[in-house]
Amino acid sequence: MAYTILEVSKQTGISPHTLRFWAKKGLFPFVERDSNGVKYFSQSDIEWVGWIDWFRRSNMSIEDIKQYVNLAMQGDSTAQERQRMIAIQHTIVLEKIKEFQAIAKSLEHKLDVYANMLSNGKDAMNPQSKDYVKCKKVCKKDTKKDKKRKSK
């Protein structure tokens, strides 16, 4: 069965605008067009849409995705290069997870501070408040990480 961009959008949750943008960037060279230029996706094409979406959500660039798609179209002889590309992206995702875990830890600390504030009526998180308490250990660690990140 063949699916239009609107039908693919409904199945995947990816907007028609995004699908058209990706098509324009050459990420769907396998998708067929009719004589009017309307794109028709097969079920396996929709699976590729899913992979492209995962790559984009992992911050893989359009150029790298295009390279991956082109390599895949060349067949088994490019499997090692495609594996390398996915391994690089996997490492990037794991680094992002660590970063988000650190952010989550800081947010948990801030939630605890707010819980204390709400229970004792003192606004210790607001620098404008007479009850303000300077940021301790967690914030200082965050500041050091921010400085390192900015210097890169």
TrEMBL record:
Transmembrane segments: none annotated. Residues 2-71 form the HTH merR-type domain. SUPFAM superfamilies: Putative DNA-binding domain. It comes from the Bacteria. GO terms for molecular function: DNA binding; DNA-binding transcription factor activity. Pfam families: MerR_1. InterPro entries: DNA-bd_dom_put_sf (IPR009061), MerR-type_HTH_dom (IPR000551), MerR_fam (IPR047057). Keywords: DNA-binding, Repressor, Transcription, Transcription regulation. This is MerR family transcriptional regulator. It comes from Helicobacter didelphidarum. The lineage of its organism: Bacteria, Pseudomonadati, Campylobacterota, Epsilonproteobacteria, Campylobacterales.
